[in-house]
Amino acid sequence: MMRDVAIGFEVHAQLATVTKIFCACANESGGAPNSRVCPVCLGLPGALPVLNREAVELGIRVALALESDITARSSFARKNYFYPDLPKGYQITQHRTTLATGGHVDVDVQGTRKLVGIRDIHIEEDAGKTVHAPFSKNARGSGSVGLVDMNRCGVPLVEIVSEPDISSIEEADAYLRKLYQILIYLGVTAGELHRGNVRFDTNVSIRNAVDGSLGTPCEIKNLNSFKSAGRALLFEIERQSRVLDAGGTIEHETLLWDDRAERALPMRSKEEASDYRYFPEPDLGDLVIGDDWIDFVRRFMPEPPDEHALRFRNWYGLRDDTARVLTAEPTVAIYFEDTLANLLRVLGLAPDSIVNPASRLLAISVEAREKMSVVFSEMEGISPERLPELAEVTANWVTVMVGAWVNENGVDLKTLALSCLPAARLAEVIAARVRGTVNEPAAKRLLVAAIDSSEPVDELLERLDLTQVTDASTIETLVTDVLLLHPAEVERLRAGEEKLIRFLVGQVMKHSGGKADPVLVGETLAKLLGIE
Amino acid sequence: MAATTDDIRHIAALAKLSFSDDELERLTNEMDAILNYVAQLSGAKLDGVDPAFALLRRDNVFREDRVGEMLKPDDALSNAPDRDEDFFRVPGFLPEG
Amino acid sequence: MELHELTFSEARRGLEEGTFSARDLVESALGRIEGVEHSLNAFIRVRERDDLLVEAGKTDAARARGEELGPLAGIPVAVKDNISTRGLGTTCASRILAGYDPPYDATAVERLRDAGAITVGKTNLDEFAMGSSNEHSAYGAVRNPWDPGRVPGGSSGGSAAAVAAGEAVLALGTDTGGSVRQPAGFCGIVGVKPSYGRVSRYGLVAFASSFDQIGTMSRDVDGAAELLAAISGADSRDATTSEVDVPEYTGLVTGNLSGVRVGVPRESTGEGVDPEVAEAVLAAVDVMRSLGADVDELKLEHSEHAVASYYLVANAEASSNLARYDGLSYGHRAQGADGLDEIVVRTRSEDFGAEVKRRIMLGTYALASGYYDDYYLRAQRVRTLIANDFASAFERFDVIVTPTSPTPAFRLREHADDPLAMYLSDVFTVPANLAGIAALSMPCGLSSTGLPVGLQITANRFMEPMMFRVAREYEAASGVRLRVPEVKRTERDA
Ligand SMILES: [Zn+2]
């Protein structure tokens, strides 16, 4: 039978700072082992931590986005345990008072909105990495050797601890994806799951069917993808259910997920594992965060996705579904907004300042938003209907036309936007279509050409001879020629076989080398054949 | 509160120390004497007294997020009891089976 | 007078006036080391003679060229072996750090070098600075130069013995609960524990992070003051250093302490204090009075709890600070162990000495689940009370005067079977560390058995100038500056 479950998560995200949290070593990935270390992150005797301001600010961003209460005075603590890649024998984290408490993530599960509560948000240091080597020249006794790389030691982490508010695997998946989307959006983490930039621990308990009380939770650690989180939850819910079905009770356990074997194994239950002996870190002072600092962070903070979608609807009159598609990833949203701004400029509907490069760098920060709104309020000669129409057209280009090219060619949008197809260039292609300079098929050819070469778009139009034929007499000549070539079809059309009009339009288009304005061709045909 | 040998054995496990039975007995007695001595603290009037966690520390001391000097791998590994190229090597890492 | 008998001030004057060279001073220190080390065991490592002479020669050459030199130019300084020195090794007198050579220098060592000092070697200590006798060293006990049958005190016993015996002019020690002052007192020299946050701890191997400070040792007040000035000040690598300005610590003797308010706690001369010690301290207070100081009695309400609070909090921090010694990425690793956990446990159990293990155990206990509130947390709250006591005392007084220790130097192994008795001998020194305030020890006479008696002068946090002023005036007026003792030759245990 399916039981009621309560699921909570601890999500760890490596923060995208330049340096580590307590030392000046580079925070990067890859490279030679133990090449980004110093006395501090190696835990050498006598070395001391000094807190990286940026790590705090990225943590504040997360807290603001999740509407958490930022703690006015928080502190750091030592979590004591032994592990080969934890060189100090303790992890510096936050315990008694954390960066923020409370807050929520809004999750959409099959059309129903659900709020998942946040218990606390804190910042801490990552541990190193141990590679297990099956044998070694001078391995002794049993077991293999571990090869320890301390490069990851001291990489800043933000840990987001949820309440056990999640009641199904589907909700769990939606929660993780939504939180991940927010973290990516805020620019606080590189977010590469395969590199372990974001990792999940989960706790699962089953609700008593009779009195509704929550059972003993079990923890599963080491989940590195949405998929493994789902599998681990299924595994654990089934495991606990089997125990309960057999009349057993759930003992508190910490399990380690093995993704390849698709099962969770209990971590060795050492007596010391349960007693971390937290105490205040004497090497670091308190973290005091006042309103001024919070405001400063807020000003330069990217917009969280839900607010972003809302703003797209309010400012550009986009439909809700379009706004959501655009804001699924910040790259797409930024590219869209850049392109739209450029399009308005190219069409002469907005001043050049709309694409002020400085404001584009902060694309979606408060600063940029304020600048943009000024520009919008000063825009002249644009009707209330025109902006939503252009916005939808731009959205369609970014998600469908460019999206298709990106999929076919296996290039990611960010690379494309930064190399062959900057927003300004895409805007010129769209403008050619919006102005009617090219028809739809020609516009697609123009897009591909604009990506493939670096020629200016107007030169491309000329060289490829893509300009749409809109001259009435030229089109009339083309239509007359086609009618003469297809007397039988003309006869059948006159007899009432209306669908043949499309055949004839197609023939005219073909005859024009694809350049004729299809609307004008249809009208001319109708006129010459004398049909409505 | 009297410290028992079992308490001390548990604490030793947390501290990653091991003691022979003789050592353990002596240590239990020594710790018991010390714990008895420090038990006097329960006589202090502590109503409304905060712990001295932040007594001597400065709030909000930060580093700016700029890369500084890092160790050359050979310096980083120069004190390693055992190494494998640029890794620290630790034996017996995986439990049997 | 031989060169090794000179105080810092005399040595510096001699260098400036060209009476002798830095090379001469280094030669004299090395000669003295050769003569008395066998009895004292103050050093764990002495630098190569040739390296030292080359370095001294460079200073002399620079002086000859008229270059501007640092305040400690050419002065031989000994550095306690729990302060990181690149290329010189740093063992903390522990087997677990045998062969460890830090890839960096402590900030204090960098500043020492910038001031022109010549580091002669690394001095012996109680393992990881845990002890009050310097008997707990993997490199053997240090002996007191005044009586090799007695301890030099600890944990900076090596630094204290080296300075007292003329093996170095100045020394760096470290003080967590009295580890500079108590051995300074036992060896008859000046030892300073600066205010918490005054000197960077970067590179000082942590024992108890919220107590540890690097301190200075000299046979005269000005030497300790000048050395402290050289190493003090904010450090971007230690978030607990203070940005309070470092003022002048040295000054002219005026023969006048009028208006200076001196507090003498009742327990200074009370129960448990050796009568000769009490007498010497009272005589010192009389000297201060005769210089015009206002002397009054004071009561520090919670000082009876200081030792208990100190041992819980300091050892709790120590248990965490010493967790890193697991034989995995540096230091010594136990051989013949099977499996990771066993290697870690065997390394720690074999390579830490008994006193270190005792303190790790006590500290782990104080933090463990079920004990935290009753031990660690309560001790931290008592610490607040003790700090508050001092805060109100310093509203009434500029300095507080006590003995440094209740007795002069005790015999080797006197407290070997009673660790608690040893802890209790720190009763006068631990309060300054609990409150983070400044304190120094200086000689105030000899006992009838010819052992130095230490006088402790305590001042409020960052009030080192007042502390040094009182010490300087007392030093000049009392004439109690002890000679370098003749060290009796003895066989010491390894
Ligand atoms: Zn580092």
According to CATH, what is the class of the largest domain in chain C? Alpha Beta
CATH topology of the domain at 1-42 in chain B: Histone, subunit A
Looking at the structure, what is the overall shape of chain B? flat
CATH architectural name of the largest domain in chain C: Alpha-Beta Complex
Structural class of the helices, strands and pairings of chain C?
A: alpha/beta
Task: Please give the CATH class of the domain at 1-42 in chain B.
Answer: Mainly Alpha
Shape call of chain C:
globular
Listing every helix as H and every strand as E from the N terminus to the C terminus, the arrangement of chain B reads HHEHEE
Q: Any idea how many domains of chain C?
A: 2
Describe this structure in words.
The complex is a heterotrimer of chains A (532), B (97) and C (494). Chain A is an alpha+beta fold. Chain A has three domains: 5-127 and 154-291, no CATH class; 303-463, no CATH class; 472-529, Arc Repressor Mutant, subunit A (Orthogonal Bundle), CATH 1.10.10.410. Chain A has helices at 53-65, 169-186, 226-245, 291-299, 305-316, 320-326, 330-346, 357-361, 366-378, 386-409, 413-418, 423-434, 440-452, 457-463, 472-485, 487-494, 500-511, 518-529, and strands at 5-14, 51-52, 69-70, 73-74, 77-80, 90-93, 100-101, 104-109, 112-125, 129-133, 145-149, 156-162, 198-206, 218-223, 254-258, 263-266, 279-280, 287-288. In chain A, helix 3 links the parallel strand 14 and strand 15 (254-258). Chain B has a two-stranded antiparallel sheet with strand order 2-3. Helices cover 34% and strands 8% of the residues of chain B. Chain B is built from three helices and three strands, in the order H-H-E-H-E-E. Chain B has 97 residues and is mainly α. With 494 residues, chain C is an alpha/beta fold. Chain C folds into two domains: 3-260 and 401-478, Amidase signature (AS) domain (Amidase signature (AS) enzymes, Alpha-Beta Complex), CATH 3.90.1300; 304-380, no CATH class. Helix content of chain C is 38%, strand content 13%. The longest helix of chain C has 24 residues, at 373-396. Chain C starts with 7 loop residues before the first helix and ends in a 16-residue tail after the last helix. The mean pLDDT of chain C is 96. Chains B and C meet through helix 1 and helix 2 of B and helix 9, helix 10, helix 11, helix 12 and helix 13 of C. Bound molecules: zinc ion. Zinc ion (ZN) binds at residues 20, 23, 25, 37-38, 40-41, 154 of chain A.
